[in-house]
Amino acid sequence: MAKQDYDIEGKGPYEGTSFELDTVSPQAPSRGLHRGHPRMDITEGKEQYARKTVFPTPRMEFGWGAHESVGEEANAIGMDDALIVTTGLEGTGIVDAVTDVLDEAGVGSHVYSDVTSNPKDFEVHEAYELQQESNADGIVAVGGGSSIDCAKGVRLVEAHDGRDITEFEGVEKGENPSNLPMIAMSTTAGTGSETTVYAVISDTDEEYKMALGDGGMLNTVAIIDPALHRTMPPHLTAWTGMDALTHAVEAYVSRMGVKSNRAMAIEAIRLVAENLPQAYANGNNEEARENMAWAQYLAAQAFNSAGLGIVHPMAHVLGGVYDLPHGLCNSIALPAAMEFEVPGDPQLFKDIAERGFSVDTSGMTTRDAAFKAVEEVEKLKADLNITQTWQEIGMQEDDLQKCSEYAFEDFCTEGTPRDLDPDTVGQLFMANYDDPWIRYEPEPSRVSL
């Protein structure tokens, strides 16, 4: 065999790599089908491929009344005693309904109901202690992203004999692939945490939200029941829906995106644009609730492999420092970040305007059409009566440098379609610190509650 060197110049993890490719010498007899001819060089004329990882998804039960399958699912995965991790969901009756179904299936329940918005590291360990004391052999998370992320943290800590959750910040820091079986049941249409490998947990000593990505946090079963989403009040419907939109937009324009996740992301954007105002105006609108549940799922699957962008790190920081609602922070950050990102790939933002928000861009340049996507997000925010500035929700200008540095260091920045540095992140924070950042003439909400 003759050896031939190939220098590959391209993007991704193999940039600048030199490697040797076996070829068949023209003088040597070939054992292939084309005897006497050189083996085809399959790399000729091709750029080095951009390597992508697509994460698996858990088994999913989706539909009206799907929460009633929790007992059957628990039996199927060998769960005898469940640790239920939740915020409590006071006044909804959801937790009682879940424990009743589990009881009918012969599965015991031990409830940890002290999860707060932006789940804290100590809450993960409190829930873990209850799991140890009760000998629960499985976990059922019931709630929005906070409950599910906390439960994921418990699962990771349990698999590593109680080690501190802060040790797992980053990507694939877990060392034990053996985890307790877990069922995640969402009560909001936003985070999509029930089907992803990611979680965010607040480090209370450092006052910021850690982003964790680990295959050991992928739930065994996900249950999405739009009936449970009807308990959300309008403001929570708006904030969680904007979280789903942010997932979809950031996944669609991510520099790590591929056709599969972009197909899911653009459909999620369309579903949010058409259904979030209706779900906000009337929480009992079944079609809107179901479509938002699908939007959540599709957006989550899109970013599960494509990653996110700078909006989420900004929201993570403010959630950790000020304990602010994640979806609300995403809502405030999204338009200015999109404006910054448009030059990175105007065509993708043009797609969002046309295919996601159904904007007629005839006669516009690609760049002008791209900015229409930003305007549509702003109009949606106005319809949902969402706060426009950081100052209104409690951010202090003195914390700008700290917040900018924390956000820049978050691994979720990797998908941002333009290069970043802490100063740029600071400018994005200041874009609507005390004055609304908008591209269009403000209008009153088009939605009546």
Can you tell me about this structure?
This protein has 449 residues and is an alpha/beta fold. It folds into three domains: 1-51, no CATH class; 59-229, 3-Layer(aba) Sandwich (Rossmann fold); 234-431, Dehydroquinate synthase-like - alpha domain (Dehydroquinate synthase-like, alpha domain, Up-down Bundle). It has helices at residues 70-76, 94-104, 121-134, 145-159, 226-229, 234-253, 259-281, 286-306, 311-322, 326-341, 346-356, 366-383, 400-409, 422-431; strands spanning 2-7, 18-23, 59-62, 81-86, 108-112, 138-143, 170-171, 182-186, 198-203, 208-213, 221-224. The strands form three sheets. It has a six-stranded parallel beta sheet, sandwiched between helices. Strands 7-10-9 form a three-stranded mixed beta sheet. It is globular.
Summed up, what is this model?
This protein is α/β, with parallel strands linked by helices. It contains 14 helices and 11 strands. Helix 2 links the parallel strand 4 and strand 5.
